[in-house]
Amino acid sequence: MALILIMSLALPMAARSFVVDLKPRQMVLRVGDTQHLSCSAKDCTESATFMWTSFEDKPLSGTIQNPSALESLLVFDPVSTAHENLVVCKVSCGHELKQQHSTVKVYSFAKDPVIRGNDPMLMGEVNTLTCEVPEVYPPEYLEVEWVQGDSVLHTDEGKADKSTVLSRYEYTPTPEDNGKAITCRARHTFEGLPEDKNTKETTVLMNVRSPPRNTSITVSPAGEHKEGESVTISCHTDSVPVGRLVLRRVSGDQTVDLQSSPSSSTSVTLPSIQLGAIMSITVFITMMLCFAHSPGAHPLEVELNPGVGVITVERGMSFVLSCRALDCPKPVFFWKSPLDATIRSRSKTKGNLTELYLSPVELKDEKAYTCEVKCGSVVKSKRTELKVFSFPLDPVIESSGAHIVGEASTLRCDVRDVFPAERMQIEWLDEEERVLLLEEGSLFSGLQNLTSELTFTPGWAHQGRQITCRASLQVEGLPRNQTVRAAVTTVALSYGPRNTSITVSPAGEHKEGESVTISCHTDSVPVGRLVLRRVSGDQTVDLQSSPSSSTSVTLPSIQLSDSGLYRCEALNEHGNETTSTQVIVKAPPRNMTVQVLPSSEVLEGQNVTICCKWVSYPPPAVILKKPGNGTELYSPNGTFLLVNLMPSDTGLYQVNVTNDLGFETEVFVISVMEKQSSPPPNSNDFIFPAIAVGALVTMATMAGLVAYNLNQARKRGSYELTKTTPQTA
Fold it and tell me: Which is nearest to 209 in space by CA: 334, 125, 328?
């Protein structure tokens, strides 16, 4: 009973599995803070092993701490944009492995917007207000609004490649705008951002300046005046800021200042107006002039060349920015640029023109430039922004190796000295301008060398096809020849020998003594080696070896010994291929020899074997005759057996060897000596029985054996003397 109880408790414990607890599962972190992810192994009864990895194709950043055997922390201190990732915590408990993942998102929105251009503003002219929001991430989620009262005047959005979001708003102020408030409101729309931290705004007052206007002069009482009357002459003007009013009397060539006042109104009273020494009022004319001056309203104009806005310049070029002051006799120039203390030393001023020299243009010259001109108490400025790009060289295409049919091949396209790299786009195109691969550069602060790789598996259809690597720098305002460069490569396949062939000329069978050419051809890249061999029996002879795609050998007078198998082998570094053909040479019988064994002189009753040898193809028919007898014996192999010879068998014998090209005949003598102890035999018994027996055997098999051997010889392509049982005669 106790055993059963223990088992019932142990089984559930064995089946229980541990749990990976990763907290939090989703994080939105602010740059600069300190945060961490916690990964723990719950219900793990053994030693736990933790491993932190990245699910995305980017390195994992952070510091790992293990406060206990069952818990691990990934600490972000301080949080940076590099910590944005899909983080995976893998836990091994005993033999079991489990994992969980957490999404880590990062934002930066630490500083309030900064407004510039509001102080001073010139009335009636287009003024550019700028709102700058620094250190924003991700910047493409930032919305910038210009607000006045309840009205939204202008809206901009951030760009993904700029951490500082800059919004420009062109505003033409009126006198009523002086002292009014204008607001730049920045709102970060990044998902997960707390509501109380997603909006920042800055409000400034507009300081509008205007030259004197609506200037007027009045005389009271109006009309003509009698001598002795009291007359008041008043002068009024509108200007911001308040300037100085000067009231003068001009009489002939004399000018007398009557009143000068730092205000918008002034007057002078003549208590008893006099005509003076001149009695004829019709002869002398007195003019009263009112001059209004504003210390901030000199008619100064500033011209910036090439112009205001954004100017794009190529790195390494010479660039001159000129600033001219108009309607100012003695202007004072100031060049200003953020964090550039050397800017003054790079400028030259002469009269009303100053020039800033950037030669050669470097990446550090990419910034805003302001030309400020002071004319008396009037100060005006013009601003432009310089953008620098670098794209001096065409792409260069390189191959990782030979393009082999059916095997993966890689092309690499290198684009050097690029800036800004994040604006570079590299496309791989086929001959039909279809995009095979498109890649973009990444954010980088300096010159960068970019590389794009195209991997493909070439087939026969790729041979001779062109592939283009086109690099495009996405910069506005530049002609296409400065922003688009391309390189082209032609696919040249490498492959082992194919379509290897061997030919014999003339074709067909050949007669001995003819001229015969044997040729070998193959197709391979690169060109390899061709070897032409003759194989006869177990012997192989190299006839020709050539490092080319074609080779041949000519036999000017082909012989029967040249018959055999001819083999062509093509080989290069990618493989080999072999093909062969049979060459058959025909010749009439020749070099015939006849041998009689054991001797051509034998005793009565003995047997002899006649062996015939020759050279010919196709195999001939072999016939043995005894002239005058009329009997013919046939042998498929040139061997005859004459048995039980008698003295009457003595005489001449003739062997005739014949094929379709000719024949050869050999005559020899056989002598049969009579035995002395026996009565002379009947001459009719001397050869005819043997011949009859031999003829029956030979003639019964001759037709079949000759046909068989002829057929076998043709199949073998050569004639060989066979070693068969001699023909019995």
Answer: 125
How large a percentage of the chain has pLDDT more than 70?
86
Confidence of residue 6 (pLDDT cuts 50, 70, 90): very low
pTM of the full structure? 0.43
Residue 428, beta-bridge partner list: 437, 469
Tell the CATH topology of 20-107. Immunoglobulin-like (2.60.40)
Separation CA 175–CA 125 (nearest Å): 12
Assess contact for 535 and 492: CB atoms under 8 A.
Answer: no
Short-list 697, 692, 686, CA closest to 631:
692
Q: Where in the chain is the domain with CATH 2.60.40.10?
A: 20-107, 110-206, 301-389, 396-491, 496-583, 587-728
3-class secondary structure, 297: coil
> Which of these CATH numbers, 2.60.40.10, 3.40.50.2000, 2.60.40.1120, 3.10.50.40, describes 301-389?
2.60.40.10
704: Cβ–Cβ under 8 A, 6 or more apart, which residues? none
Angle (nearest 5°) at CA 668 between 665 and 672: 150
Say if residue 281's pLDDT is above 70: no
User: Does 415 score more than 60 pLDDT?
Assistant: yes
Measured at the CA of 50, the angle between CA 47 and CA 56, to 5 degrees, comes to 160
In angstroms, the Cα distances linking 85 to 59, 82, 437, 590 are: 9, 8, 26, 94
Burial 38-73 (b: 16+ CB within 10 A, else e): bbbbeebeeebebebeeeeeeebbbeeeeeeebbbb
For the segment 680-695, the average pLDDT, to the nearest whole number, is 41
Going by the DSSP 8-state scheme, the letter that residue 169 receives in this structure is: E
Over the stretch 377-389, which tens digit does the pLDDT of each residue have? 788 888 888 889 9
Comparing C-alpha atoms, which of 195, 178, 177 is closest to residue 187? 195
Please provide the size of the chain in residues.
729
Question: What type of residue sits at position 495?
Answer: Y
Q: Classify strands 96-109 and 662-673 as parallel, antiparallel or unpaired.
A: unpaired
